[in-house]
Amino acid sequence: MTAPRRDILVAFDTPSDRRRRRITRLLAHYGVRVQKSVFRVQLTPRELEGLWHDLQRVCLPEEDALLLAQIAPTGYRALGPQPELELPLTVGF
């Protein structure tokens, strides 16, 4: 049985253009871009751990800000066009 997917919002900020590109490429493998530095992903707990591990390898805690927040199924409202997540997404490097 497959673990249920969680809806996660990922937001980041970095002063480094190089790290910004790397983080953006990484997150694009996992989900869809909502704004320039905000992505929406749907992950199993194992995939979430993998994403967190990958982000820790790219980010510098003393310079970058990173937030991963789980979205409750009925805990948000949206206005305007919303990008659709097409599952399954394939993650590969």
From TrEMBL:
Coiled coil: none
Keywords of this entry: Antiviral defense, Endonuclease, Hydrolase, Magnesium, Metal-binding, Nuclease
Binding residue positions for Mg(2+): D13
Superkingdom as given in the UniProt entry: Bacteria
KW Metal-binding (keyword) present: yes
SUPFAM superfamilies: TTP0101/SSO1404-like (SSF143430)
PANTHER family in UniProt: CRISPR-ASSOCIATED ENDORIBONUCLEASE CAS2, CRISPR-ASSOCIATED ENDORIBONUCLEASE CAS2 3
Subunit comment: Homodimer, forms a heterotetramer with a Cas1 homodimer.
Reported function: CRISPR (clustered regularly interspaced short palindromic repeat), is an adaptive immune system that provides protection against mobile genetic elements (viruses, transposable elements and conjugative plasmids). CRISPR clusters contain sequences complementary to antecedent mobile elements and target invading nucleic acids. CRISPR clusters are transcribed and processed into CRISPR RNA (crRNA). Functions as a ssRNA-specific endoribonuclease. Involved in the integration of spacer DNA into the CRISPR cassette.
UniProt-recorded name of the protein: CRISPR-associated endoribonuclease Cas2
The encoding gene: cas2
